[in-house]
Amino acid sequence: MHSPSSDIRFSEAQKLLNYGFSNFTNISFGNKGDVIGKVSIQKGVLSEINAIMEDDATLFIEKAKSSKVVQNISLNDRIEAPIEKGSVIGEITYSLDDKVIKKVNLVASETVSKLTLVNLTTTLYDTWFKLLR
């Protein structure tokens, strides 16, 4: 800001930008809504649902370290119904040199109601009706 002339100021800004573009990169590991896996649902109308990313997983990192990023996915093994759409059912962590640098929640892709006698009877009738067609 206190350079003798605007030419010198622009030259220094250009050097700074060139350094940034040549040494750093923006990596995308996934986008909001991407399906990561399936989770089993106990006592629910559905037996399984998709686990989706709650947010984008992008990292701004040095190019030399970009291949050293480790992704760890942890999903809850047993989820019991009812579960609401958007409920957290797992997590993805991104780490570099054993230090966590980004966390993204994995959420339920849809709502699952608890299995009741009414739901079970309706499902049974629907199944039998489809078989008799």
Order of helices and strands: HEEEEEEEEH
Distance N to C terminus: 79 Å
Say how many strands there are: 8
- Count of discrete domains: 1
CATH architecture: Sandwich
Give the arrangement of secondary structure elements.
Elements: H1 6-23, E1 24-30, E2 35-42, E3 48-53, E4 57-62, E5 70-75, E6 79-80, E7 88-96, E8 99-108, H2 117-132
Parallel strand pairs: 2-6
Antiparallel strand pairs: 1-4, 2-3, 3-8, 5-7, 7-8
Give a concise summary.
By secondary structure, the protein is α+β, with helices and mostly antiparallel strands. 26% of the residues lie in helices and 41% in strands.
Please explain how this structure is put together.
By secondary structure, this protein is α+β, with helices and mostly antiparallel strands. The protein has two helices and eight strands. It has a single domain (6-132), classed as D-Ala-D-Ala carboxypeptidase, C-terminal domain (Peptidoglycan synthesis regulatory factor (PBP3), Domain 2, Sandwich). It is elongated, with a radius of gyration of 24 Å. The termini are far apart.
